[in-house]
Amino acid sequence: VQLQASGGGLVQAGDSLRLSCAASGRTFSSYRLGWFRQAPEKEREFVPAISSGGRIYYTDSVKGRFSISRDNAKNTLYLQMNSLKPEDTAVYYCAADSTSLGVFTSTLAYEYWGQGTQVTVSS
What we know:
This protein is an all-beta fold.
């Protein structure tokens, strides 16, 4: 599976962005998918994940502001980000997990990664 993330940019606090992650491969619908982010000098952290069955999990800091979704017909994962804050500034990565056996908040659970897209939120 190859993943291609896009949609990042420079926005002001309170603005919205929609990230997309296009995937290759015929088994996209069976994968657990997630978004992670990494700010400068910080570890990569979990943001949201969506299972193959549509169950969704968010990290507390983005609940009520971010929304993850998937379109299996288009092999695409989305992240709608509203009410952006400067602390949301990071490189955002999409990830895919073919087994759904690992801890979904851990980077170790995901075998496939996109190249990252920069999101910068100015105050």
